[in-house]
């Protein structure tokens, strides 16, 4: 396990992706800072809030990253899990070391989730830091109108990072499954990203509303519920259940596929 | 487990991909402590067989026993005792040689963490890569990667080492090192299973061999046994080919009508050849104690020729080389059997 994480985080690619994600809150903050100098007072309400409280940079950045940038990076990591090893030729050596196939899948999944956590934490952390540097930081006014102190706000930020990480469970499991189907990592990565986009598109078609609660991306942006007082836990719970269901289905599929697969790469 | 038993045994091992039978019911027997050469042209099913032996691919039918235990059912206990280089090395190009070996070593749950650094260092030294240990594998040459692959097979003491085309991409110097390495491994009691399409390589380092052709096992045994399976023949150089043929025929040899076109010096006269069955004469060093007079001992053939007044200018018993056998078994040229 430690070795798996070491391989993941010793890759330059992993750091480039994390860096890119960290740049997004920075970009948002700098853009708002520059434009608010001669502010017209217009623009989406939530972006406007940044200039009043720097902590909001993190939330805005997350909202921007969730639809595309996060699925993109997660798709790269999850799609690479098995097919990447197969492509390098290391899969056969791992298996004869020997690593049990179930164990390998599990380790790969946990490592991919570790990346998801790292990615969200990086966004939140970068957002908070750049926000604090460029804007005033003070008590945060929640969506419900209540006000909480900075400490409590930091806690909420972590909670949100947790929520987003959990939200990515389903996509990671899908990526893992796709990765067992092919020896070409790029294909698995692209397919995973495409699936996340398709899911979001379906989610935006009102005609398919019956389908919406079953889409793994349906609750992605509901982390705002964690910004109410008292915290609205129901979306957190529903989301977790849904993600676990996806994990169970695609985890089983991945195991079913991988356990009997002839490794010929 | 019986000492001197079989390190690898397969019965009716078969692999079918779609409609193509890649490996067709092979029965391998690899004795413990041997250096076993697995020969065959490209595409004859060697690598697929090896993948099945190591549990990477499942057999369509047949049984596999490795180190006395069923595969792939007991893979968890068998594979830690097996080192392997399978169809070329596979490494993370963005990690150093050392880091790659550490990674694969940590994947083996039986490998002790406390001795890892020492074992990795030792394995690298054994293949002569110590100077490049810290370099990223991306910067390695093909030969260096191949060496690193062999180092990986040597990380822990193994009972069986499987090397698939170990000298691919190695220069002659490296090839010789691999031979020495294999020798030192057998000295430690390790069984080495080497696949190759290069006969010379097998001939130089193996004690046993098996030959694959188009998914079938066409020969198997110790090198001596294999050599004897080939045809030996006597060759007489004489200016009196007619009488020579007659004498040989009287001795019961089937004189070959069509000499094989080998160039002879004009002064030596013509070359007369006849196949000699191995059973009819004593091969190997002749020991006075066991010596028996058989009508077809080479020296008796010469005596018969001379007695008949044939001027013998040259006489030789030519043993079939493994190469003749290999070519006879697998066909010549590029017409790889489908």
Structure description:
The complex is a heterodimer of chains A (265) and B (338). Chain A has 265 residues and is an all-alpha fold. In chain A, 71% of the residues lie in helices and 2% in strands. Chain A has 11 helices and 2 strands. In chain A, strands 1-2 form a two-stranded antiparallel sheet. In chain A, strand 1 and strand 2 form a beta hairpin. In chain A, helix 2 packs across helix 4, helix 5 runs antiparallel to helix 7 and helix 9 packs parallel to helix 11. The longest helix of chain A is centred in the middle third of the chain and has 34 residues. Chain A starts with a helix and ends in a 6-residue tail after the last helix. The model of chain A has no long low-confidence stretch (mean pLDDT 86). By secondary structure, chain B is of the alpha/beta class. Chain B has 2 domains: 222 residues, 3-Layer(aba) Sandwich (Rossmann fold); 89 residues, Alpha-Beta Plaits (2-Layer Sandwich), CATH 3.30.70.100. Helices cover 31% and strands 25% of the residues of chain B. Chain B has 11 helices and 14 strands. In chain B, the strands form 3 sheets. A 6-stranded mixed sheet of chain B has the order 7-8-9-4-10-11, with helices on both faces. In chain B, strand 1 and strand 2 form a beta hairpin. The chains are: A mainly alpha (265), B alpha/beta (338). At the A-B interface, helix 1 and helix 6 of A face helix 3 of B.
The number of helices of chain A is 11
Mean pLDDT of chain B: 83
Shape of chain B from CA axes? elongated
- Largest sheet report of chain B: 6 strands, mixed
**Annotation, overall tally of beta strands of chain B:** 14
What is the C-alpha radius of gyration of chain B, as a whole number of Å?
25 Å
Biggest interface, chains and residues, is:
A-B, 24 and 31 residues
Termini Cα gap of chain A: 23 Å
Number of strands of chain A: 2
Low-confidence stretches of chain B: 281-291, 334-338
What would the average pLDDT of chain A be, to the nearest integer?
86
Describe the main β-sheet of chain A briefly.
Answer: 2 strands, antiparallel
CATH H-tier superfamily of the largest domain in chain B: P-loop containing nucleotide triphosphate hydrolases
